[in-house]
Each structure stands twice: as C-alpha cells, then as structure tokens.
Design goal:
The protein is of the alpha+beta class. The protein folds into two domains: about 5-225, Rhopdopsin 7-helix transmembrane proteins; about 235-385, Alpha-Beta Plaits. The chain has helices at about 5-25, 35-55, 65-90, 95-115, 120-145, 150-175, 190-225, 235-250, 265-275, 275-290, 315-335, 360-375, and strands spanning about 255-265, 300-305, 305-315, 335-340, 340-345, 345-355, 385. It is elongated, with a radius of gyration of 31 Å.
C-alpha cells in the first residue's frame, strides 16, 4: 500500500538529507577521483531535504515559502544534479539556460499564486519549473550512453525521461478535465503513483549516480593499469597481451602479422643538453607522430624508457617496412617546440614478421629488437628488418 503524500515527503526528505551528507563526506576522501561531482550532488541532496521540509509544512508556512521557494529549491537541486552529471561525463553544462528557466518559471509561479492569488495555472507552471533541468539531465545521460553505452547511464536517462513524461501527463490530464488547477486533478491510483515517482526520484537517481561514479572510477583504474602515464598509449603488459590474442588469430587463419620496434636516437645527449623535460617532450612527440600514421587495427605501445613497439596485424614484411619508413620520415621531418627552440629527433626502427615457429609476440619482438640494433649500428635514423622463413599458405585443390 502506498504511503500518503505527507509521509512520503518526510521519508524521502530524510533519505535525501542522509544521502547528501554521506556523499559530501565521501567527496573529501583522499584521492577520490570524482570529488567535485560528489560534492555538488551531495549539496543538491541537502537542498532537496530543505525543499521537502517546506512542502511538508504547507499548512503552517506562508504559501510563498511552502510553494514558491520550495519549488524553486526543488528545481535548482535538479539543476545541481545536471551539473554533477556534466562534470562526470566531461560535457558542457548550459548553466545560464537552466538558471534562467528556473527563475522565469518561479517568477511566474509567484505572480500567479501570490500576487493574483490564483491556482488556476498551477499544474503547467510547476511543470515548467522543473522540466528544463530534467530535459538537460536527460540530454546529458542520453548523449553519454550513445558514446559510452552503460546500463547505469541508460537507467539514469530512463529515470529523467520518466519524470518528464509524468509531468506532461499531468498537464494533458488537466487539459482533458478542463482546468489546470489542482481541483481538476484526479485522486486515483494513476495520479498517486505519478506523484510518488516524482517524490522518490531524487533517492533513486542518487543511487544511480553513485553507481555511475563507481563505474567511472573503475574505468579510470583500468585505464591507468593499461596505459603509459607519459604518452597515454598502451604500456608493455597491455600491448603484449593484446598482440598475443591477435597473433594467435593470425596463425590460425594463416594471415601475416608483423612487428616494428623502435627508439629515439641520442635521447641521453638530448637530456644532457636540454634537460629531462626536453626528453619527455621528445617521447611525446614521437608518440604523436606514430599515432598519426598507424592504422586502426595496429597495436601501439611503450615498452619502457624510449623503446616503443607497433604490432601490425595483416601486414607482411614489405608492408611493415613501408610503414616503419613512414614513421622514420615523419619523425625526422617534424621538429617539436621546447621552450624557445625547435628541436628535431630521429629514430631507429627494426622490423620482424611472423614465422611458423613464433609462439608469442615476444618472439617477433626479439627479432625486431635485433633489427633495431642493426639500425643503430649503421648510425641510426634507419629501418632494418630481420626476415625469417615465411608462413606457408596451404593450396586447396578440389577433390576428384
């Protein structure tokens, strides 16, 4: 059995206040990656608690407080939810649009209810107060779900959309009854259910936001575990692991698979002459050059220090050598800025191709490293290859 509206307001107001305090406390935990988002959401929950307290005291407080101010706080709290989501998703937030919409609709509510002392337009005005923050939050979640599908993001989108649908249903029902005042609204199960959906939504959305934050934190942790902190590309472990899966598939399907190992020429001299910051910039510059030239299916990773690797599915020795030559030329022809100077670096590249005896990417990498050493011996800024016995592609003959 559903609780009456007053009991629901007391219950939800208490829950939102407790959850707001909890999220504020969580936002001050050391190294919390979503601290600002949690803080904004927690403060919004506290604003909900104040709004619900004003709603509950409708019979004892002046209407300007229990209706106008309460609904303004209610809408602004949802605006805070939208801001927290925008920060979490790293998307722009139309703050001026939301605040202007809330202020205009709140002013309209004040004029109608306090100045003219009429509730004849209460239903559409109250819908207008909240529908802009809800629409902005729905848009934030929907756009995020399209780019990064997640059940939590989808649930949040559905939640905000449901509140918009309930609000529009109230307007439609009022129009059907011939009046937009409260006196025309039904007291049946549908209306009571809709009211409770709007009442408990802050609690349900807060649970959803907590799950979203946890999901983003896990995604960040996975990214940190898989990527190199300086260049942002795959680290050694991740590159070798991913290449192992692709190599196994290439061997099963008798497809070519190649590897290019490379490093910078004279990195130590660069560090000695211009400082380690210049060396870091050179490594980042090399990464950007190679990233602009690799294919979508290639696996680009940093092995450590100034050593890098690109694993190339579907590439034979000739194709891998041609791409490595493009790496070499791109690096040698593109200087990078360091302080007031333009510096140019070169690299040495070693190429190896999959052979029948290779069991893992490390086998290719070992030959590519030896080819890289050959390039170093001729003075650097060169591409060298180590060619092994080719993979034999079976010739299928029709059965007689």
């Amino acid at each position: 059995m559903l609780l009456d509206i007053t009991s629901s307001l007391l219950l939800v107001g208490t829950l939102t206040t407790v959850m707001g305090l909890w999220m504020l406390a969580a936002s001050y935990v050391r190294d919390e990656p979503n601290a600002e988002e949690l803080r904004i959401w927690g403060l919004s929950c506290l604003i909900f608690g104040i709004a619900y307290a004003l709603f509950v005291n409708r019979d004892t407080l002046p209407l300007v407080w229990s209706l106008v101010v309460a609904n303004a706080l209610y809408a602004l709290a949802y605006g805070g939810f939208g801001l927290a989501l925008a920060l979490l998703f790293k998307r722009p937030f139309p703050a001026h649009f939301v605040i202007s919409g809330v202020l205009v609709s709140t002013a309209t509510l004040y004029v109608a209810e306090i100045v003219y002392e009429t509730s004849a337009w209460r239903v559409p005005i109250l819908a207008a107060v909240t529908i802009i923050p809800w629409a902005v939050s729905t848009s934030q979640c929907t756009r995020e779900w399209r780019t990064h599908p997640s059940p939590h993001t989808l649930a949040m989108s559905v939640g905000f959309f449901t509140m918009i649908a309930v609000s529009l249903w109230r307007i439609a029902w009022s129009w059907h009854q011939g009046s937009f005042g409260y006196t025309s609204l039904p007291s049946g199960t549908g209306y009571v259910l809709g009211s409770h959906i709007l009442l408990v939504s802050p609690v349900l959305l807060t649970v959803g936001f907590f799950l979203l934050s946890a999901e983003r934190t896990q995604r960040t942790i996975r990214k940190l575990a898989d990527t190199d902190p300086l260049t942002g590309i795959l680290n050694r472990r991740s590159a070798i692991l991913l290449a192992g899966n692709r190599l196994a598939s290439a061997k099963r399907r008798q497809q070519p698979f190649s590897c290019v190992a490379f490093d910078l020429d004279g990195l130590k001299n660069l560090n000695d002459l211009h400082g380690h910051a210049a060396g870091d910039q050179a490594l980042i510059h090399l990464t950007e050059v190679v990233k602009s030239l690799v294919r979508a299916e290639d696996i680009f990773g940093r092995l450590g220090g100034d050593e890098f690797v690109v694993f190339m599915p579907y590439s034979d020795q000739q194709g891998a050598t041609a791409l490595a030559e493009r790496f070499r030329e791109g690096l040698a022809e593109r200087p990078f800025a360091h302080e007031t100077r333009q510096l140019t670096v070169t690299g040495s590249f070693g190429v190896a191709t999959l052979t029948p005896s290779d069991q893992s990417p490390l086998d290719l990498l070992d030959r590519a490293d030896r080819a890289l050493y050959d390039a170093k011996k001729v003075g650097g800024n060169a591409v060298m290859g180590r060619v092994g016995p080719p993979l034999t592609v079976p010739i299928l003959t029709p059965a007689l």
